[in-house]
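Bench notes, afternoon.
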Amino acid sequence: MAESKGKPAKAANRTPPKSPGDPAREKTAKRLSLESEGGGEGGAAAPSELSALEEAFRRFAVHGDTRASGREMHGKNWSKLCKDCHVIDGKNVTVTDVDIVFSKIKGKSCRTITFEQFQEALEELARKRFKDKSSEDAVREVHRLIEGRSPVISGVTKTVSSPTVSRLTDTTRFTGSHKERFDLSGKGKGKAGRVDLVDQSGYVPGYKHAGTYDQKVQGGK
């Protein structure tokens, strides 16, 4: 009995019971807090549509590299972009100018440039490419050369003409057994050109005058 009296009594729960309207209030407060957070951060988090210039940048950035993410561009693809989009005109802007600008814009320990650095590089080349225009107009003209463009793929299936190859593939120069494999037009005879086929059409194998009997009989009459 003494032990039971010595134990402190449990504190009564003084939290008032929630009223029936509390769940609705909590949902409203939660929705308002989410909307306020979305107004401050939602604009940055929401995916924005790519501009025509950035789309071209990503197309050239992934060209020839299946592991590329499209967010960075190597010097080789940068040079191809400037060449395919005619930023290089051979007069005001040369391949050397393009390489110098790339080395200037990229970081010392980096081998690639980002889209922001890409825009800076274009500003450098725009002043060289369009000397007779203002800075803003020159940049705008360079962007027009690049927007919506894709890497040019040409010359992949082009055959190389070689005297040695022509000599080896010219059937008129074949001799011996190789010559027998082709007809006068150069078309292969197939099995007949590789294997000696025996004519079994007559009573005597290899008879060369098959089909001439009727002609001889009619001629005799």
